[in-house]
Amino acid sequence: MREALGSLTTRGRGFLAAGGTAFVFALFLGYPELVRVGALLVLVPLATVFFVARSRYRLGLVRTLLPSQVSAGQQARVQLDLSHDGRMPTGVLLLEDQIPYVLGVRPRFMVDRMGPRWSRTVSYAVRSEVRGRYVVGPLEARLSDPFGLVEVRRTFSSRSMLVVTPRVLPLPPIPLSGAWTGSGDNRPRAFASGSAEDVTVREYHRGDDLRRVHWRSSAHAGALMVRREEQPWQSRATLFLDNRRFSHRGIGAASSLEHAVSVAASAAVHLVQRGFTVRLVTAQDQGPHGTWHEHGQPSAEAAPLLESLAMLVETPATVIDTPWLSESAHSGLLIAVLGDLDERDSAALSRMRHSASGALAVVLDVAAWSTDGRGGAGSGPGSAAARTTAWLGANGWRAVAATPGDPLASVWQELGAARRSGSGRPGPGPVAAAPSAAPSWGPP
Question: How far apart are CA 64 and CA 58, in angstroms?
């Protein structure tokens, strides 16, 4: 009852004020007819409050995102399925869904009277030009009586998650190389003699498929033994993205970091479509990344990579310090998307090159993002990106420089045609690679 009294609208409060005023004037002026008018004005909102308080509205909500993961600039539809399981019909429902401002204006709907066991479906479109993961909801419903005297608010607790991934551009095929590694318990082997009964087995672990139990070996060992799972070898690729703050220029969606994320996303999807098992690593740490995604359908395998890129943020680190550099195992093909570098990065880049069967790099000319975004200051043969590309080529990389105005497909094709200018051994360092007037890889 107290909640219903607090839900009186301006019209309802006006009725109470008018009724009270009529009572006061009736007492002082002695008009009994005015008492009846005042009583009517007071009783109508009070009766409405009592009716709303005793009513048992049982509203249900099911929110569906179609789809739940979209690329930046693409639309997604939010479908709201409302149901009413109460015994009393509702009045007019005013619905407002809570969404972040980057997805658009908050949607508002008006739903007509809903009787018992009725349902309604409404939908709206959202779109974001900025990658990220956004919470959609909760939904707020405002229930009003037919006279507009009382308005009750109900907030649903359900929320949904919308993932906006970076823009992915199609890339042309280029020559790629990688390391073929087994992903099962045991590498495939050829039997020099014997038969298919000569299988490799191990002890049963909880959760193993019982169809893999090797009964003959289990009888000899006195314990359950299962066949080792063998899977075809897969080509691996490591995608490195330099997300250090000092390595990039620009603000927001027009920054070099956002361009680097889009390049990495396009490369990841391209590699997955080519049959590579891909992992994503960044400059500071692996975090939720750094794991090899199981090979499966291309769209399913690329989804976790794109979601990781959607949530990627810049790091204040000044050096490349990521755990995967200390791995002793071969990491296969390496594709790096780099920003502005300095002489402290030479050791990390050399270790990356030696731990990979092939190394490709897209070096962003970040000085072009710090002006008008059209490849202005800093671009050209003497830019920092050009010197970095030359140093990488002399140390076993295939590298190209890119500016904001360069089509990504052309940059990728140029990367495929690039050739290493050195033997792959580490050079004397970035200082020696830069002109004498420039002591580092930075702008002269």
Answer: 20
In sequence order, the β-bridge partners of residue 363 are 338, 401
pLDDT band at 183 (very low <50, low <70, confident <90, very high): very low
Q: What are the tokens at 221?
A: 């060992």
Overall residue count recorded for the chain in this entry: 444
244: closest CA among 303, 305, 319, 189?
319
First to last CA, the chain: 75
Angle formed at CA 79 by CA 75 and CA 80, multiple of 5 degrees: 145
Comparison of pLDDT for 278 and 4, the residue scoring more: 278
187 has pLDDT over 80: no
DSSP string, 143-203: EE-TTSSBEEEEE----EEEEEEPP-----------EEE--SSS-----SSS-TT---EEE
Residues 274, 277, 281, 287: is their CA dihedral positive or negative?
positive
* DSSP bridge pairs for 127: 75
Q: Is 22 exposed, middle or buried (0-12, 13-18, 19+ CB in 10 A)?
A: buried
Q: Three-class SS of residue 8?
A: strand
Residue 212 token pair? 């893999």
Task: Answer whether 222's CB lies under 8 Å from 202's CB.
Answer: no
User: What is the DSSP annotation of 97-140?
Assistant: E---GGG-SPPEEEE----TTEEEEEEEEEE-SS-EEEEE--EE
Radius of gyration of the chain (CA): 33
What is the β-pairing status of strands 139-144 and 234-241? unpaired
With a cut of 90, say whether residue 302 has pLDDT above it.
no
89: cis peptide before it, omega within 30°?
Answer: no
Closest CA to 105 of 132, 74, 128: 128
The strand pair at 234-241 and 276-282 is best described as: parallel
β partners of residue 14:
none
Strands 358-364 and 398-402: parallel
